[in-house]
């Protein structure tokens, strides 16, 4: 970068210092992460909640039939119909995508559930032409609701708190399943919610269905989270239930809350700013450093800060009012900058001109590119710490980690950077020809995974096997404990 003026070069160095996570820090973060995962298994209400999902074991292959899945992500809403045939590992999927309007994310619970019930209705009308939808009583739905819930049974979930920028009144502290079922009833849609599923658990189950070496499911999208299969005997907080200690149960970690106490993560002033100005300050510390929702905002805050710095000549004589708008850039903006193949970063020039009406110089673009790399690399390396921590805690020596989400699938080099960090965490050198633990693109967890979990649940119900603590919920499909 010999053509970059000294003031910009100095600031690139400063940014490198604050955003780089060196190998020793990776190790320290993993160690604290393991402690916190264990605390979550031991005690209710820990920082990392380690929520039992009541998904008991992996699919065996004899789950068959047609199931619905509804995926309420942070950005989109998707309705799927999944056919599971006789052959294990196979499926057919039909789906429609709907945008979640911004105003819904800050409205009321009734508005939210009415909106998604209407999407389900429209999907059924389109996919069951000629059929009366009020007759579709035999369809069962896996509801992928990817927000931290306390689950006492698989078709039950009390929302602990909204994440990913949602702030909908009247839902936190309530069971979301009856709220959604009431909305379906209002719309005249008679389907039953068989399972409330987190996208991470769906990813774990869907990936394990087609790849038996899968041990962890991860999401790197609007938010960031993971799920894995735990033995009941390793969950002290459920010991009072006196269930078979060998019973496998999927745990939704909700690891986005890691380090809410600020013990270890090297937060920059920009991370602190994001937290302070978020709807939930003090929560989701890890997520706010790695998830898609925040990467663009971290990037934007750094540029605004440099512009205001009299010692730096960045965007001088430019109108930066578009850049000053909060959350105006998302992770795809950084992904585009990192994908620019030209030495003079001419695509980045066009991007800034089009999106922000800023005419950039080549040295400015060098700083911009380096900043995007630093933020994207930090996110991938921190994400690898979470994967490393689960593997260390469970003494997993080799496995596939099924991963999904636009950041994982579309952000350039995210996968390679994560793999590199895992090599540093586990100390694999060049003599290890194939990484024993690999994060790989998953099957469709929120669709196929949720449908598989609905199928698994129906199989257990038909066999009369109870899963979950004794709850009294009107219309619950789960039989109470004998
Ligand atoms: N091309 C892209 N590269 C990197 N990140 C992207 C890209 N497109 C979208 N994103 C980010 O991914 C997030 C959405 O994640 P996604 O997995 O698509 O949905 P959801 O989390 O709602 O299920 C957004 O925060 C957005 O910033």
TrEMBL record:
The keyword ATP-binding applies. Residues 215-456 form the Hexokinase C-terminal domain. Belongs to the hexokinase family. GO terms for molecular function: hexokinase activity. It comes from Discina gigas. This is Phosphotransferase. The keyword Kinase applies. Pathway: Carbohydrate degradation; glycolysis; D-glyceraldehyde 3-phosphate and glycerone phosphate from D-glucose: step 1/4; Carbohydrate metabolism; hexose metabolism. Its EC number is 2.7.1.-. It comes from the Eukaryota. It catalyses: D-fructose + ATP = D-fructose 6-phosphate + ADP + H(+); a D-hexose + ATP = a D-hexose 6-phosphate + ADP + H(+). Gene3D superfamilies: 1.10.287.1250, 3.30.420.40, 3.40.367.20. Keywords: ATP-binding, Glycolysis, Kinase, Nucleotide-binding, Transferase. Residues 12-209 form the Hexokinase N-terminal domain. InterPro entries: ATPase_NBD, Hexokinase, Hexokinase_BS, Hexokinase_C, Hexokinase_N. Transmembrane segments: none annotated. It is an enzyme of class 2 (transferase).
């Amino acid at each position: 970068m010999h053509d970059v003026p000294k003031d910009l070069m100095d600031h690139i160095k400063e940014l490198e210092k604050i955003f780089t996570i060196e190998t020793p820090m990776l190790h320290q973060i993993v160690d604290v992460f393991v402690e916190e995962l264990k605390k979550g298994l031991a005690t209710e209400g820990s920082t990392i909640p380690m929520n039992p999902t009541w998904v008991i074991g992996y699919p065996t292959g004899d789950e068959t039939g047609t199931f619905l899945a509804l995926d309420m992500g942070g950005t989109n809403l998707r309705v799927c119909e999944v056919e599971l045939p006789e052959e294990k590992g196979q499926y057919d999927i039909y789906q429609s995508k709907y945008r979640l309007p911004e105003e819904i994310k800050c409205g009321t619970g009734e508005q939210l559930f009415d909106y998604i019930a209407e999407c389900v209705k429209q999907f059924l009308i389109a996919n069951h032409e000629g059929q009366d939808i009020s007759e579709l009583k035999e369809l069962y739905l896996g509801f992928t609701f990817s927000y931290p819930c306390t689950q006492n049974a698989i078709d039950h979930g009390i929302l602990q708190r909204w994440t990913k920028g949602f702030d909908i009144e009247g839902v936190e502290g309530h069971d979301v399943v009856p709220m959604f079922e009431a909305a379906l009833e209002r719309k005249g849609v008679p389907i039953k919610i068989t399972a409330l599923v987190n996208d991470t658990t769906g990813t774990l189950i869907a990936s394990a269905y087609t790849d038996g070496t899968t041990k962890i499911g991860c999401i790197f999208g609007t938010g960031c989270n993971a799920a894995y299969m735990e033995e009941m005997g390793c969950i002290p907080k459920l010991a009072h239930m006196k269930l078979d200690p060998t019973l496998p149960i999927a745990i939704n970690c909700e690891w986005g809350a890691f380090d809410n106490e600020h013990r270890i993560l090297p937060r920059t002033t920009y991370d602190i700013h994001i937290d302070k100005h978020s709807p939930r300050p003090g929560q989701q510390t890890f997520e706010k450093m790695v998830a898609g929702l925040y990467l663009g905002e971290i990037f934007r805050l750094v540029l605004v800060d440099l512009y205001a710095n009299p010692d730096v000549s960045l965007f001088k004589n430019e109108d930066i009012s578009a850049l000053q708008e909060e959350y105006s850039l998302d992770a795809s903006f950084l992904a585009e900058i990192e994908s620019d193949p030209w030495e003079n970063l001419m695509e980045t020039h066009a991007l800034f001109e089009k999106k922000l009406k800023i005419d950039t110089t080549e040295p400015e673009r060098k700083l911009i590119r380096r900043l995007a790399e630093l933020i994207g690399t930090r996110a991938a390396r921190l994400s690898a710490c979470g994967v490393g921590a689960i593997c260390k805690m469970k003494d997993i020596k080799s496995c596939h980690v099924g991963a999904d989400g636009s950041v994982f699938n579309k952000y350039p080099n995210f996968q390679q950077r994560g793999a590199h960090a895992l090599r540093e965490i586990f100390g694999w050198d060049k003599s290890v020809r194939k990484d024993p633990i690999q994060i790989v693109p998953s099957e469709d967890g929120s669709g196929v995974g949720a449908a598989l979990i609905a199928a698994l649940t129906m199989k257990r119900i038909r066999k009369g096997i109870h899963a979950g603590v004794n709850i009294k919920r009107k219309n619950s499909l789960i039989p109470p404990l004998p």
